[in-house]
């Protein structure tokens, strides 16, 4: 017997309600996507801001660099201008120093001129007479120097003649003896005649023009009197004595004559510059060339005697009384 407890219910179960879990999951993904979008947008905005700030920093650095370069250039310009100013200041100091020295020199010269004018205006000094005496002393000094240094006898004579003319204008009796001494010294200069240096050069020129030594020519009878071996081999062999120093070949004679002319020219140049040692040495060498050009003969002896006579000539004047007038004039002026 079937009891109600044993009855098995076969009624189908009612369907369960739908689960809400999937809807919650889709919303979570949505919120996550929104958060990611917001985070990405914030990151992109931050990155843009960081890029802008970096660009601004770079622009600021470039601007600062340009300003530093401009400041450096301005500093260099200021330094250059300062150096130029320092140079100008140094040049101005040098110019001022030079001008100060020149001004000091002008002051000294003005003082000397004032002193000279005051001395010339002094009635006790006889200004015109002092000027004549100064001119006389200057002319005597010039004449003495022309004769001693340059050997200019004519110049010395003219200077002494001018000094005599100037001294004639001095009417002070104290200078009467000075005028007499000047006349004696002028007369001594006139008695000297030709200057020895000019005379020696003239004689050298005449000797150089007269040096025409013809070459020695063998006589016509020499070939007939020559030995047989010379007549046979004379065209092939030339024999000369070993101890003979006379030049016989035309080229040797031409060279010897050129050497003689050269020595005479050197002697003339030495005489012109008052070189007595060089003058005598050149004439001594000329004697050897004369012996080379000709054999011992009266003509050679005359030429050697001429060379020795020329070597003995003085090249400078010897005036024992030269400078006596100048010395006496200075003594008289010092005493006064």
Automatic annotation (TrEMBL):
Keywords: Membrane, Transmembrane, Transmembrane helix. Signal peptide: none annotated. InterPro entries: HemX (IPR007470). It comes from the Bacteria. Residues 1-23 are annotated as: Disordered. Pfam families: HemX. The chain crosses the membrane at residues 29-47. This is HemX family protein.
